[in-house]
């Protein structure tokens, strides 16, 4: 259905793809995996007309093609769902679903009645029932991803490319997605599936191609590879090394001591948070557990001043912090790494250097003039410490892999020398190698005395990385687990004991 041969693409200072071969057949679900920076995103952008290859050929449905634009690829029958939802937030759900192919009446005008009806039917088929006349931005991230999925499968596609499609979905929506993938298989549609979640790969994929440093290092049936071998291929490490070190870098309990550096008390936001309290001591990692919609992100945003509160107090190092003010929170030593790095974090058109220095500029200036030498020293320090892979500090952040973009964001806030670091899904959408590096860094920061709040949908990461876990449901604290209590079983029990899963209709919805 779709194949490439000898595909090569270079950017200034780096070769992103080096003679890659890849093919997917009708009704096949083909996993495309590798570390961040391995070349996965570049390959997808070459297949869909975002980039043009330097060398090699692309064959689609038996003939050579070279798409000039993504729209051209879509019209040919290649549909893509990206990790970050690439739709129009201010437009209605229905307009997003039919953007560029709106149903029209006899006079050529948009038939809104038909469009709303067909949009509602398409989303209902995916288990999503919303008012399709609402702006897309009024939906949660998971619901927006389901709209993107509905759009991708509603066009007459012969190949559907899914780039980390479950990163924003709750378990119920993941099951729906897998059902859609099986339906596509039955219809003879080829699926290219990009994910870092190994459980998903083994559940839905037939074949796997592994990329490393821009080269293809393996292609074959996924059932023929055990997980350890798959990870060793991705990382370029021997299986014995992977087996000995494991897949995470969390070292265990941290030496937390002294009075709490962060005390958030009775944080309340109408319809979102109900008297949430969190304390964190120096050198401690406190996890926020719960399902999607439980209020985890809202708690972090309220502490960081990004979500105005109706009531409640935030105290850092004994000094009260004005709530609802991000500048006040930053001055007090609170830094927030947001969940959506594309919309709320990186500035893709700026360089690595500019992104890292952005928040710290006032402290890196003298008499209102920017001190370039100081900025260079800070940027160089954090690029080395976080092992940011880039051609140099002046490369645009938008050209980096997701994992390296995440590291740039971390560097920005660490350059502020914070007292409290709020991490909202810090390893979301990054590969196992980069994930382990970020986890190791969290450990290092806690060991250095930083107070860390960790939000993660990865239960294993939350349990292994946290000293305590505050469990939320429907915007309220329902349990706090400490020490030996921090287990998967206790966490699930804490959520279920309060009346079962609370993902539907919660704050994130």
TrEMBL record:
Topological relation to the membrane, as annotated: Peripheral membrane protein
Primary location recorded for the protein, binned into one broad class: membrane
Official protein name in the record: Sugar ABC transporter ATP-binding protein
SUPFAM superfamilies: P-loop containing nucleoside triphosphate hydrolases
Top-level taxon: Bacteria
Localization (cell): Cell membrane
GO molecular function (one): ATP hydrolysis activity
Database matches in InterPro entries: AAA+_ATPase, ABC_carbohydrate_import_ATPase, ABC_transporter-like_ATP-bd, ABC_transporter-like_CS, P-loop_NTPase
GO annotation, cellular component aspect: plasma membrane
PROSITE patterns for this protein: ABC_TRANSPORTER_1, ABC_TRANSPORTER_2
ABC transporter domain segment(s): 2-238, 242-499
Cell membrane listed as a keyword: yes
Keywords for the protein's UniProt record, in alphabetical order: ATP-binding, Cell membrane, Membrane, Nucleotide-binding, Repeat, Translocase, Transport
């Amino acid at each position: 259905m779709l194949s490439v041969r000898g595909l090569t693409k270079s950017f200034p200072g780096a070769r992103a793809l080096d003679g890659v071969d890849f093919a997917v057949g009708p009704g096949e679900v083909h996993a495309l995996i590798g570390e961040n920076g391995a070349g996965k995103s570049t390959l997808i952008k070459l297949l869909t007309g975002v980039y043009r290859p330097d060398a090699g050929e692309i064959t689609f449905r038996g003939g050579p093609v070279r798409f000039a634009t993504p729209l051209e690829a879509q019209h040919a029958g290649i549909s893509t769902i990206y990790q970050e939802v690439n739709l129009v937030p201010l437009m209605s759900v229905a307009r997003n679903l039919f953007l560029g192919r709106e149903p029209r009446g006899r006079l050529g005008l948009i038939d809104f009645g038909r469009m709303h009806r067909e949009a509602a039917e398409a989303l209902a088929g995916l288990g999503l029932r919303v008012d399709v006349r609402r702006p897309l931005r009024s939906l949660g991230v998971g619901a927006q991803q389901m709209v993107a999925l509905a759009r991708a499968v509603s066009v007459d596609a012969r190949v559907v490319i899914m780039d980390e499609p479950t990163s924003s979905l709750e378990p119920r929506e993941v099951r729906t997605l897998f059902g859609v993938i099986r339906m596509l298989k039955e219809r003879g549609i080829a699926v290219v599936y990009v994910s870092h979640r190994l459980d998903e790969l083994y559940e839905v994929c037939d074949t796997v191609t592994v990329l490393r440093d821009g080269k293809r290092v393996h292609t074959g049936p996924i059932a023929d590879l055990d997980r350890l071998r798959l990870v060793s291929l991705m990382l370029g490490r021997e299986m014995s090394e992977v087996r000995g070190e494991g897949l995470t870098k969390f070292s265990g309990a941290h030496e937390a001591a002294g009075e709490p550096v962060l005390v958030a008390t009775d944080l309340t936001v109408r319809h979102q948070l109900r008297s949430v309290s969190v304390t964190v001591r120096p050198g401690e990692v406190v996890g926020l557990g719960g399902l999607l919609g439980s209020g985890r992100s809202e708690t972090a945003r309220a502490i960081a001043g990004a979500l105005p509160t109706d009531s409640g107090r935030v105290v850092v190092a004994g000094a009260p912090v004005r709530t609802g003010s991000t500048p006040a929170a930053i001055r007090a030593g609170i830094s927030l790494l947001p969940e959506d790095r594309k919309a709320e974090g990186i500035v893709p058109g700026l360089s690595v250097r500019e992104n890292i220095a952005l928040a710290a500029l006032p402290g890196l200036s003298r008499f209102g003039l920017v001190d370039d030498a100081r900025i260079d020293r800070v940027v160089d320090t954090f690029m080395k410490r976080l092992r940011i892979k880039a051609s140099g500090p002046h490369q645009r952040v938008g050209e980096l892999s997701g994992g390296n973009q995440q590291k740039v964001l971390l560097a920005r806030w660490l350059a502020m020398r914070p007292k409290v670091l709020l991490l909202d899904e810090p390893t979301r959408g990054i590969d196992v190698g980069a994930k382990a590096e970020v986890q190791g860094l969290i450990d290092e920061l806690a060991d250095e005395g930083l107070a860390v709040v960790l939000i993660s949908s990865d239960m294993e990461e939350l349990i292994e990385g946290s000293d305590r876990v505050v469990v939320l449901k429907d915007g309220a604290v329902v349990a706090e687990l400490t020490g030996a209590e921090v287990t998967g079983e206790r966490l699930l029990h804490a959520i279920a004991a309060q009346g079962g899963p609370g993902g539907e209709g919660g704050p994130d919805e």
